[in-house]
Amino acid sequence: MVTKVHMEALSPTMEEGQLVTWLKGEGDDISEGDVLAEIETDKATMELVARGAGVLRKQLLGEGETAEVGAVIGVIADADEDISAVVDGAGTKAAEKTEGAAAEEAAADDKAEAKDPAQARAVGATADGEGADAHDEGASPGGARGEDTVQREPAEAEDGEAAGRGADASADGAGRLRASPLARRLAEERGLDLDAIEGSGPGGRIVKKDIERAAEEGAAAAGSARASAPAAEAESVKVSQMRKAIAKRLVQSIGPIPTFYLTIEADVGRLLELRGRMNARLEERGEKVSVNDLILKATAEALRRHPEVNASWRGDTIERYGRVHVGVAVAIDDGLITPVIRDADRKGVADVAREVRELAGRAREKKLKPEEYQGATFSVSNLGMFGIQEFTAIINPPEAGILAIGAVEQKPVVVDGEVTVRPRMRVTMSCDHRVVDGATGARFLATLRDFLEDPMMMVM
Amino acid sequence: MAVITYREALNQALAEELERDPDVFLMGEEVGQYDGAYKVSKGLLERFGEERIVDTPITELGFAGLGIGAAMVGLRPVIEFMTWNFAILANDQIVNNAAKLHYMTAGQFSCPIVFRGPTGAALQLSAQHSQALEASYAHFPGLKVVVPGTPADAKGLLKAAIRDDDPVIVLEGELLYALKGEVPEDEDFVIPLGVAEVKREGKDVSILTHGKMINVALQAAERLAGDEVDAEVVDLRSLRPLDLDTVIASVEKTNRAVYLEEGWGFSGIGAEIVAQVQEHAFDHLDAPLLRVHQVDVPMPYSKELEKLAKPSVDRTIEACNRVLYR
């Protein structure tokens, strides 16, 4: 009797496996249950066990080669049985599949974009190397096979890494997301991205409690500026399955949104002066405002005047948000979260400052409520305090843009024909080209620069 | 309120309806002189006489047909089958005549007949005498089907069935006849056909069921409560007409359901309910709908095998845990 040896899903999140070592050779006797090979998956190295008895007639996958889950990678049969049918069919498939996998993923991205805005949202989430490494230790699926189809993986959940992992966890080889109908509805109602949520149900199915957990942990707040701090390897190392998974997710985050970047440099002399005067008045109340608070206010005011930028791509339409809610990127222990200052255009700078301080504090303690980090219409990320002069941030879908604020530097500039030293600051805007064209973005930045250089213009 | 047995509740329903309407009569094997094979018709022959309580030979097809003929000319017969297994012999009369006469005669004839008797398994009655056939009768348009699981439901539903102008199949249970419960004493206590009842309120999972399985469901719910799972038990009571609204309301509340039935799974009542629930409450489902039913074998004679074949509290709890991802 012929038994096909398949690349099995040795973990619910596995999409492909790399054959590390064959533990049985062609011609060896096989009993059901014998360990045939060691397979490296996205999580760990696991044993592949024989599902039938006979002789290992053919190894169709070589050591070091990779195959998709489901591919036939070997044949067990009686010594004299005709296995040509299996070998001819399967041999090519294993190879095709590994090549085809890349094409399929690209196609899946395109499909995702065309299909449904909810699905097309970039998984800008937990793609940083640190998080992935924590997984190595945290995730121990134990005795791979014989494992119940109901997978738990609470370790991942606690890390708060639900985001990135979710892309693999809940999508099967064909890129289909598994989620119960209820979970889909709840995710849509709450504006959560299913791609960013890990499923605890069988086969990685996302179910109601995963949605509730994701909402609590803020998995939906896809960190945008994470890309600014990549975990780079110093030497040339063969890419492991895990690293491949991280890479794939990063591409998914940038891929769907056609992004371009615009940079301006503003003279912030008057802005700094304004800050000084404001703080003098606020001292009595024991409060302070920072340059960033003023920048947030200026951004909100500029957005109010440029509703075409304060918008979102919805597939058939562009939704222009009626209100201005500015997301402020806050660095926390594990990474990044973006609490939202609602109606920032209608709040005074002091109020904005107070709110940013309060939300950032709670963000660092991981005590933000979902409504506090969801619903931004535009985001701002500032790395000036780290000395970064200029950088590009990744857009937080479904927003259409994000500002990357650099450090304020004293620079020599030419004013009225003379060289003088002025405080200058660079702002780079990432724009979703489906919503914002070059000229539109440029006009917005011109307004913003006007507000930064001459804050009085905000009240004109 | 009086606490009486299911058997007494049926007896009262029959007596009250016989008293109320002179066109009502009871016919079947052993219903008269023997006081009923299960004593459901005890004392009725004495009280109402031979014209109203009619003993028949062992000929289900024959007396089912007699009843249908009587119904067509204006009487209101209650035909008792000693068990529903025996009624299989009368199926041609039930499904081809009773179910279809009104339709095929463009309403010129009605068939206000009730067919009643015990359904499903008892203890070691073996393959041919343990079948739960509600699914096969519910299949036919033209038949109404009710499955009372408590004494109160038995009385209210039987009275409603007798008063109904359409053929009604009433499926009781040998293991239910001794069950005690509170029953309203009002002579006009009637439970309308097509109304389900939530027998136990809960919020975590819906156990949908009918007939004698209510007890299994309630026991499962008790044990689950000890494990901090609050199960809701919905008793359909009426298979045709079906109260889908109550079922959907329950599933929308709990987001997951298990159908528990005595009969087989393939094409069972559970299969129909699951189909309708997924159609009408799709976006509320957090898990697939599961069914717990008799193992797909003819009922074994052996005591131990029979226990294993019947749907149990354990299997019900297991199904609930699966839909709860526990």
Give a verbal description of the structure.
The complex is a heterodimer of chains A (460) and B (326). Chain A has helices spanning 84-115, 117-120, 129-138, 154-159, 162-169, 181-189, 208-217, 241-254, 269-282, 291-305, 349-364, 370-373, 438-453; strands at residues 3-6, 16-22, 29-30, 35-40, 45-49, 54-59, 66-68, 72-77, 259-267, 311-313, 318-320, 326-328, 330-331, 336-337, 340-341, 378-382, 401-415, 418-432. Chain A has 460 residues and is α+β, with helices and mostly antiparallel strands. Chain A has 3 domains: 3-98, OB fold (Dihydrolipoamide Acetyltransferase, E2P) (Beta Barrel), CATH 2.40.50; 123-252, no CATH class; 257-459, Chloramphenicol acetyltransferase-like domain (Chloramphenicol Acetyltransferase, 2-Layer Sandwich). In chain A, strands 9-18-17-16-12-15 form a 6-stranded mixed sheet. Chain B is an alpha/beta fold and 326 residues long. Chain B has 2 domains: 2-183, Thiamin diphosphate (ThDP)-binding fold, Pyr/PP domains (Rossmann fold); 197-323, Rossmann fold, CATH 3.40.50.920. In chain B, helix 3 packs parallel to helix 5 (91-98) and helix 9 packs across helix 13. The longest helix of chain B is centred in the N-terminal third of the chain and has 15 residues, at 6-20. Chain B is globular and about 60 Å long. Classes of the chains: A alpha+beta (460), B alpha/beta (326). Chains A and B meet through helix 6 of A and loops of B.
Give the secondary structure arrangement, pairings included.
The complex is a heterodimer of chains A (460) and B (326).
Chain A: E1 3-6, E2 16-22, E3 29-30, E4 35-40, E5 45-49, E6 54-59, E7 66-68, E8 72-77, H1 84-115, H2 117-120, H3 129-138, H4 154-159, H5 162-169, H6 181-189, H7 208-217, H8 241-254, E9 259-267, H9 269-282, H10 291-305, E10 311-313, E11 318-320, E12 326-328, E13 330-331, E14 336-337, E15 340-341, H11 349-364, H12 370-373, E16 378-382, E17 401-415, E18 418-432, H13 438-453
Parallel strand pairs in A: 12-16, 16-17
Antiparallel strand pairs in A: 1-8, 2-4, 2-7, 3-6, 4-5, 6-8, 9-18, 10-11, 12-15, 13-14, 17-18
Chain B: E1 2-5, H1 6-20, E2 24-28, H2 44-48, E3 53-55, H3 60-72, E4 76-80, H4 84-87, H5 91-98, H6 101-104, E5 114-118, H7 134-138, E6 144-146, H8 151-163, E7 168-172, E8 180-183, E9 197-200, E10 205-209, H9 213-226, E11 231-235, E12 238-240, H10 244-254, E13 257-264, H11 269-280, E14 290-294, H12 303-309, H13 313-323
Parallel strand pairs in B: 2-3, 2-4, 4-5, 5-7, 6-7, 10-11, 10-13, 13-14
Antiparallel strand pairs in B: 1-8, 6-12, 9-11
Helix pairs in contact in B: 1-8, 3-5, 9-13, 10-11
